[in-house]
Specification:
Length: 398
């Protein structure tokens, strides 16, 4: 089981905190946005005396409210098309275990959400990666690249839209091209759409659930974690109109009994949160994104594409190994009593050697803290590069 690149440096951060160093956490998608009051109040106002199991597919009242939510975004579903899961993570695992046999293969554009590696390992599925490029903001690779690695063991493709870790938003045209591909080869198309509400500028999100004639091929993963800044609730959803997939997934859901009761109550209350909540949150994230991209792209040797959605950026740094650099930032560096924690880029790739000079940055801090974190990162890069150059000159002379 691969270690999480998002969390593997936690021991170094904990040691830094014990030394009195303040850590700016840009490594993990834990927003500082307040969870909607409706969700908290729903849990506080519970008056039942027994904490019971729910249905394995989730409380029916919550599932019906989710159907209404999807209807608002233009997607019509039936109750049996949806299973409530313990976070989006469980939905991904259920999807892979329901649709693949051991040894089957899945194609994923990389960089991709690091835990896909872990879920694929747990399900006995082999990942066949296709590299996307920072030069075009990590757009969907050419369909010919997908075609070139489809074999008899290939059973599906997975995308995250908008993307974690890159912030890229796949267009309707790109999704239509994938539609043609999955129809041609009879593949599953998995879409992780947990950041659907976070779209910036004039862009709009197009769900794979809106694609025609691929109802039996499409499987969607969703979650309330980021949408409502409720990461600790651990409530997600698995969605598909493919009855065989959902009947199989329900067996896995029954085996784990039920999703958590308190969290479902909070999640059900979240369906009544007004659209104005997302408007204000998106306005805040746009300001953070603009600040991040503007400052990073002014640093010599740094490349930061402008994210179109979510709240992440995949950033190229002028270092040869960002894992070493991220460790150094935690072990050996501080600026005004603080340092920055980031996620090394290599962990978001399956291809060995890729992403060595990249980091994922989550712009989940308020602008004041984000500015301080970027001050710290800029100074840290300057000092680290100077030390590396000095060491190189020493060894060359020796």
């Amino acid at each position: 089981m691969p270690a999480s690149p998002i969390r593997k440096l936690v021991p170094y951060a904990e040691a830094a905190k014990k030394r009195g160093v303040h850590i700016y956490h840009l490594n993990i998608g834990q927003p500082d946005i307040e969870t909607p009051k409706q969700m908290m109040d729903a849990v506080r106002n519970i008056d039942f005396k027994t904490l019971e199991y729910s249905h394995s597919a989730g409380f029916e009242s919550y599932r019906k409210k989710l159907l209404a939510y999807y209807n608002i975004i233009g997607v019509d579903l039936n109750l049996e098309d949806l299973i409530v899961t313990t976070g989006g993570s469980e939905a991904i695992l259920f999807a892979l275990m329901s649709c693949f046999d051991e040894g089957d293969e899945i194609i994923i554009p990389e960089p991709f959400y690091a835990n896909y590696n872990a879920f694929a390992t747990a399900a006995g599925v082999k990942i066949n990666p296709i590299v996307s490029s920072i030069s075009n903001g990590f757009a969907l690779p050419p369909i010919s690249a997908f075609e070139s690695i489809i074999g008899e063991k290939t059973k599906g493709i997975i995308i995250c839209n908008p993307n974690n870790p890159t912030g890229y938003l796949y267009s309707k045209d790109e999704l239509m091209a994938l539609r043609e591909l999955v129809l041609k080869h009879d593949l599953f198309l998995f879409a992780d759409e947990v950041y659907r509400e976070f779209i910036y500028g004039d862009e709009s999100h197009f769900s794979v659930l809106e694609l025609d004639d691929v109802e039996q091929n499409v499987v969607v993963v969703d979650s309330i974690s980021k949408r409502y800044s409720a990461c600790g609730a651990r409530i997600g959803a698995l969605i598909s109109r493919n009855k065989n997939v959902m009947q199989t997934a329900l067996k896995f859901a029954q085996a784990r009994l039920s999703p958590p009761t308190f969290a479902q109550i909070a999640a059900e209350a979240a369906t009544d949160v007004p659209q104005s909540y997302f408007e204000s949150v998106n306005k805040e994230y746009i300001a953070r994104r603009d600040l991040l991209a503007e400052r990073l792209n002014k640093i010599d040797g740094v490349i930061c594409p402008i994210p179109k959605g979510a709240f992440y950026a995949m950033v190229k740094l002028p270092v040869s190994n960002t894992e070493d650099f991220c460790k150094w930032m935690l072990e050996s560096y501080s600026y005004e009593g603080a340092t920055v924690m980031m996620a090394p880029g290599s962990g978001f790739y399956s291809t060995p050697g890729m992403g060595m000079n990249e980091v994922r940055i989550a712009y989940v801090l308020n602008k004041a803290d984000l500015n301080k974190a970027l001050d710290c990162l800029e100074k840290g890069l300057e000092q680290y590069c100077a030390e590396v150059e000095q060491d190189t000159q020493y060894y060359n002379q020796a």
